[in-house]
Amino acid sequence: MSGLELRGLQVGYRRRGLPDLRAVDGVDLDVAPGEVVGLVGESGCGKSTLARAVCGLERPTAGTITFDGDAVEPLGLRRRPARLARIQLVFQNPNASLNPRRRVGNQIEDARAIHPAGREHAPSIATLLADVGLDAGVAARYPHEFSGGQRQRVAIARAMAAGPRLLIGDEPIASLDASLQAQVARLLRDVAVGSGAGLLFISHDLSIVRTIADRVAVMRAGRIVEEGPTERVWSAPQDPYTRRLIAAIPVADGLGRLPEVDLG
Ligand SMILES: Nc1ncnc2c1ncn2[C@@H]1O[C@H](COP(=O)(O)OP(=O)(O)OP(=O)(O)O)[C@@H](O)[C@H]1O
Ligand SMILES: [Mg+2]
């Protein structure tokens, strides 16, 4: 089986004087190559914890993570680059992915060096920048010389330079102006799918997820409460919590607002 497979994934945090917190509590989820899966849910429901576990940055307390048929084991910092070649994360804050003291072209070049096809076959810096709508000339600039939206484009180019098979965007548009959010979300989808990689797009904004995801998983308190094709989940949500998320979306486009549901 290719792509990402989570089965019964549990990730806990130790808490002093309290029982362990099950931040991720028995999640089954798949992301196939070329597929866009939206993971939505409120703050604190466990989305980032799940993303970190997939990247080997948190140790699961139970369950399995499989990627392209291989078990994903938590890796020490030293072995992270190899993992990160296959699975690339794009964070909410592009400053978390970029080094402020290095020219962006050099940072993209570092990522090209871990491309599985080798640097000579990896797409050129100019191509990677063009794919995210930036001019090759910006390679000489430092991160602070870009706007927030451009910086997130650079972070996406840097992630793609490593030739990932899966991209994980952890709230990758949350720090951007509302006017840029849909555009950058679509860009992320286009570059991931265009290269044959899967995309796990994490957001609390179901209205944006709806515009780019093939499937949606709704997470609440560490569990997936509903999962299915995006249009089915949007038009006929089965779980009361999903209905509440949809009902909470402002009616900006005049679509999709459901009657208030009484959750008791
Ligand atoms: N390092 C940590 N140690 C202890 N508890 C943590 C740690 N990181 C997260 N948590 C707790 O685990 C739960 C899930 O957190 P997580 O960051 O995964 O949520 P999230 O869905 O990404 O939220 P947000 O939408 O705010 O980013 C929360 O209750 C959080 O307080
Ligand atoms: Mg988070």
What does this structure look like?
The protein is α/β, with parallel strands linked by helices and 264 residues long. It has one domain: 3-Layer(aba) Sandwich (Rossmann fold), CATH 3.40.50. It is built from 9 helices and 10 strands. The chain has helices at 47-54, 80-86, 104-112, 125-131, 148-161, 178-194, 206-212, 230-235, 240-247; strands at residues 4-15, 18-31, 36-40, 62-67, 70-71, 87-90, 166-170, 198-203, 215-220, 223-229. A 6-stranded mixed β-sheet has the order 6-7-8-3-9-10, sandwiched between helices. Strands 2-1-4-5 form a 4-stranded antiparallel β-sheet. The protein starts with a strand and ends in a 17-residue tail after the last helix. The model is unreliable at 256-264 (pLDDT under 50). Residues 47-48, 170-171 line the site of magnesium ion.
Sum up the structure in keywords.
binds adenosine-5'-triphosphate, four-stranded antiparallel beta sheet, binds magnesium ion, 31% helix, Rossmann fold, six-stranded mixed beta sheet, 9 helices, 264 residues, alpha/beta
